Amino acid sequence: MFDGGLDALLDRVAGTPDEVLAAELGPLVASGALPARVAPLAAGEPAARARLRAAMRAFHGVALAPYWSEIEGAVRADRAVRGHTLAAGGLDRVLRDLSPYLAWAETGEHYALSYRCAVADDVEVAAGGRGLTLLPCHLAPQPYLLADPGGPLVLVYPIRPGRRELGAGAPLADLLGRTRAAVLAATADAPGTSQLARRVGVSAATASEHAATLRAAGLITTRRDGAGVRHCLTPLGEQVLRAGGPAGVRPR
Fold first, then answer.
1. 111 by DSSP, 3-state: which?
2. I need a surface site. Which of 38, 114, 191, 237 has the fewest CB within 10 A?
3. Range list of H helices, 15-109
4. 3-state percent breakdown (helix, strand, coil) of the chain, nearest 5
5. Model-level pTM?
6. Contact by Cβ (8 Å): 219, 211
7. Per residue in 165-176, pLDDT tens?
8. How confident is the model over 59-83, as pLDDT tens digits?
9. What is the DSSP string of 192-215?
10. How would you class 178 by CB atoms within 10 Å of its CB: exposed for 0-12, middle for 13-18, buried for 19 or more?
11. Do 53 and 33 form a contact (C-beta atoms < 8 A)?
């Protein structure tokens, strides 16, 4: 589960140093981005820390504990995929494949990592010799960075949903058309154009045309991968598929 168990993890979060709480929460409370009731926590008050710990435990019991075996399975599967990618294509390939919201580029002797997160525009970060830890997360809709001055950078990234989790049901097929809905569902694990065409049973040119339409609508992104490209779901595309019903649509 966690190193030391759930209690140890809750203690670690609830024991966040006062200066970190003040620096990270204080400005958000002052600007109105967080409600005034968060001010005691930003000030590090013991009672507020205790309430935070109790709230985290309650959330875990309702939102995580009942589904923990599925979450663990998804994390293990993601790590296996990343390990295979690392062995086959190196770290560069792993970082390029983490999320459609991440960009990883080599610039001479240095590497530049930029990402788009929910609270900022494009952000560029540099490990500066501190190292980079990749942390898959079942709940994160977009990647975000944890910067601990005393340790490596931690890049939290969303676990890509499996093809079994996403499907294009009848409502989505009625909206997009059966073939285009099938193309959208087939992008769950970031295929290339030829692979996408084989899955849906259309020509590569037709798959590319549908991908272009889905890309223009913000449902997928397309990234260069060596001599080819890979098509990836955006968070919006994933939400559309999750709302679209069970898998099983066949193109006509």
1. strand
2. 114
3. 18-31, 39-42, 46-59, 68-96
4. 50, 20, 30
5. 0.55
6. no
7. 445 556 676 777
8. 999 988 988 887 887 788 778 778 8
9. -HHHHHHHHTS-HHHHHHHHHHHH
10. middle
11. no
